[in-house]
From TrEMBL:
GO cellular component: plasma membrane
Transmembrane segment boundaries: 239-260, 267-283, 303-322
Lineage summary: Eukaryota, Metazoa, Spiralia, Lophotrochozoa, Mollusca
Cellular location(s): Cell membrane; Membrane
Gene3D superfamilies tied to this protein: Neurotransmitter-gated ion-channel ligand-binding domain (2.70.170.10), Neurotransmitter-gated ion-channel transmembrane domain (1.20.58.390)
Keywords: Cell membrane, Ion channel, Ion transport, Membrane, Receptor, Signal, Transmembrane, Transmembrane helix, Transport
Membrane-related topology note: Multi-pass membrane protein
Protein name: Glycine receptor subunit alpha-3
Length: 369
């Protein structure tokens, strides 16, 4: 009896694929068979029982790059994260002639997906208007294609020594959070690992092709985790700074030099112009640095503003020096004089002309001994 039951089971196992192939199951029947919880567990990696790593191919499609902020050193992107792997449990070659199955949003949750994370992510979300922006395709040979539209804010460490004539490299770091390299390995797509659409940034140019590489991490006792690194090199557009910073500061310096053509006796005019240009230059310098982090090193914009302030302040100091020198020369030219025929030194303090009724004019001089 036992041998008879064993033979029947073997025959059913061998005949089932042929029966399924002859029946040509519908899409719904194929999905019900593949995702049946009695034969498929979405919490277990595809090659877990074989004790081999699942190879996942990753491609990034960058739709937009925006909101690049120097003060918080981060940038925001909108991407399509595309992942592809093979799950032997989802093979349906002998079940139907359909080459690809497209899964609904609710069925996606029933399929195992890699636990991919972005390690330099500050905040992120999968777009959900009007439905969660996810798609999944199943192919006959068990290949799974999974894509999700994600909006993220990623940290980007910036070197601002040459600001605003600088270039910045903003990276993407992707790792598996729970699987070591024994169970999961990431690979870049060999055809096109990272694709960027025609992105137009207000303050940056994309200087070169995207960069991508491996960066596996060893976390000690936790193990070695798979990691991929990608990024873009952004060169700052200086047009804004030429119009808003460089040209106004040059004009302010030239304006401070106008005081050289103003009469040196016009003290009020020259002082007002000098103080006004110094205050304007200080205000503009503070405004140019308001959108930058408080770093401890000197930036190129600091050198420019300090030089302009030096010229403006120098024009004010020049007037002070010239005014003191001129007053000293006037004192030397107006030295005391002596009255002839007398040993008494006098200085003429003031004199007045008085017209008397007899029409004789007398000069009254008051002397001070």
């Amino acid at each position: 009896m036992k041998w008879t039951l064993f033979i029947v089971v073997i025959l059913l196992v061998r005949i089932q694929p042929e029966v399924l192939a002859e029946q040509q199951l519908s899409r719904q029947d194929v999905l019900n068979h593949l995702l049946n919880t009695s034969r498929y567990d979405s919490s277990i990696a595809p090659n877990f029982e074989q004790d081999t790593a699942t190879n996942v191919t990753i491609q990034l499609f960058v739709r937009s790059i925006h909101s690049i902020r120097e003060i918080s050193m981060d940038f925001s992107v909108d991407i399509f994260l595309r992942q592809k792997w093979t799950d032997p449990r989802l093979v349906f070659i002998n079940m139907t002639d359909i080459t690809r199955l497209e899964l609904d949003q609710k069925l996606i949750d029933k399929v195992w997906v890699p636990d991919t994370i972005f390690t330099n992510e500050k905040e992120a979300a999968v777009h959900s208007i009007t439905v969660p922006n996810k798609l999944m395709h199943l192919y006959q040979n068990g290949t799974v294609f999974y894509s999700a539209r994600i909006g993220m804010t990623l940290s980007c460490h910036m070197e601002l020594q040459k600001y605003p004539l600088d270039s910045q490299f903003c990276p993407f770091y992707m790792e598996s959070y729970g699987y070591t390299t024994e169970n999961l390995i990431f690979h870049w797509d060999t055809t096109k690992a990272m694709e960027i659409t025609e992105v137009e940034l207000p303050q940056f140019f994309i200087e070169s092709d995207p960069y991508f590489d491996r960066c596996d991490k060893d976390y000690g006792e936790a193990g070695i985790f798979t990691c991929l690194e990608g990024g873009v090199l952004l060169r700052r557009n200086t047009g804004y700074y030429v119009i808003q910073v460089f040209v106004p500061s040059i004009l302010i310096v030239i304006l401070s030099w106008v005081s050289f053509w103003i009469d040196i006796d016009s003290t009020a005019a020259r002082i007002s112009l000098g103080v006004l240009t110094v205050l304007t230059m200080t205000t503009q310098s503070a405004g140019a640095r308001s959108q930058l982090p408080r770093v401890s090193y000197v930036k190129a914009i600091d050198v420019w503003m300090a030089t302009c302030l030096f010229f403006v302040f120098g024009a004010l100091i020049e007037f002070a020096y010239a005014n003191v020198t001129l007053r000293g020369k006037k004192k030397m030219n107006g030295a005391p004089t002596a009255v002839q025929g007398s040993s008494v030194s006098v200085s003429i303090v003031e004199y007045t002309i008085v017209e008397l009724p007899l029409k004789n004019i007398y000069t009254c001089v008051r002397l001070k001994s």
